[in-house]
Specification:
This protein is an all-alpha fold. The protein contains 14 helices and no strands. It has one domain. Helix 2 packs antiparallel against helix 11. It starts with a helix and ends in a 16-residue tail after the last helix.
């Protein structure tokens, strides 16, 4: 999700073994790591609340605009600055589309047809998509046989979720397909950054701030175009559903503001600390916990349910994602790069 931009920005700035900060940490990095999983996993639940009064494009725009304000403020407070150069900003706009504007909109749109739990499962396709698009975008990339097998396994998992043997299956194929597009979008964005901006060290929060700023700029025409198609029933781009009561509207707006502030702003700070204290490899493994959290919250809070094909397919996709993300030295090689 948008928050993935923060991970890339910090990784690009600090490398795989960022130096530990001076002084003793009040909050251990393990606590921050779990907080990230909860924050990003709960984003699908918050979008579901937002959809009670807002359209998918409105949700995407609000969370990006508010998240941008938070991150730019953080950038200024930490003394950072935005990148320079026309070519660099061109690549950042492409990255902003694939890492913010497009996936945020797709996930919200997909959740108009499927549960938040299933949308979170759609997000788990990201590591698998990254392998596929890395082969296309990075000619020198070498993918091991195990990872190629994992990609095929992940696709089998997706196939199981869609229940092709059951014409009246429980999965809305269009809705789930939209969430898969959202998850796959991250798989395009990261290899793109690696190819065209991989050797550029922006420092600190410069890159994530620039990426989400580009997302904000892109959301302006996207929102206006969407509103132009809806102008017969909406007075303005910020108009809510006519049937939504005042309490519903407030719940929806607060949910999306929290999504922007916490899911983007706070998460950026937490991610930066985790990378600094534990290393980028450890921090990246939070990806595997996000769909787990989304499924649990969907079931507990919204009383959503998953049929056995979705559960089995989810496990298959998760196992495939774990194989794809497995470090060269094995999972036991994940350890803190520096003492606190």
């Amino acid at each position: 999700m948008a928050t993935r931009a923060s991970a890339a920005g910090v990784r690009g700035a600090t490398g795989t073994s960022a130096p530990a900060g001076s002084g003793r940490r009040v909050v251990p990095w393990q606590v921050k790591f779990l907080a990230l999983a909860l924050i990003w996993g709960s984003s699908f639940l918050l979008m579901k609340f937002g959809l009670r009064a807002l359209a998918p494009v409105q949700i995407s725009a609000m969370r990006i605009f508010f998240g941008t304000a938070i991150v730019l403020t953080m950038l200024r407070l930490t003394g950072g600055r935005l990148p320079r150069g026309l070519a660099v900003w061109g690549h950042l706009f492409v990255s902003g589309f694939f890492l913010t504007a497009f996936p945020f909109t797709m996930f919200a749109l997909g959740e108009t047809r499927v549960s938040s739990a299933l949308a979170g499962i759609g997000n788990s396709i990201t590591p698998i998509a990254m392998v596929i698009f890395s082969l296309l975008l990075i000619p020198a990339e070498r993918i091991t046989r195990d990872k190629l097998v994992a990609v095929a396994l992940g696709l089998v998992g997706v196939l199981v979720i869609t229940e092709p043997w059951n014409a009246g299956g429980t999965t809305d194929l269009v809705g789930f397909g939209i969430t898969l597009l959202g998850g796959a979008s991250y798989g395009v964005g990261w290899p793109y950054i690696r190819r065209f901006l991989g050797r550029t060290d922006f420092g600190g929060l410069s890159q994530p701030a620039a990426v989400i700023l580009c997302g904000s700029v892109l959301m302006v025409p996207m929102t206006l175009i969407w509103w132009w198609t809806q102008r017969d029933r909406l007075d303005a781009p910020w108009s809510v559903h006519a049937a939504a009561g005042s309490r519903t509207v407030w719940v929806a707006v607060v949910a999306i503001l929290v999504l922007g502030a916490v899911g983007t702003g706070l998460a950026y700070m937490l991610q930066f600390d985790v990378v600094r204290d534990a290393g980028a490899v450890v921090s990246s493994t939070v990806t595997y916990l996000i769909p787990v959290v989304s499924v649990v919250l969907g079931v507990l809070v919204l009383s959503e349910s998953l049929a056995w094909p979705q559960l089995v397919g989810f496990v298959v996709v998760l196992v495939a994602a774990l194989i794809v993300g497995r470090p060269a030295g094995g999972w036991h090689s994940l350890r803190r790069a520096h003492p606190a």
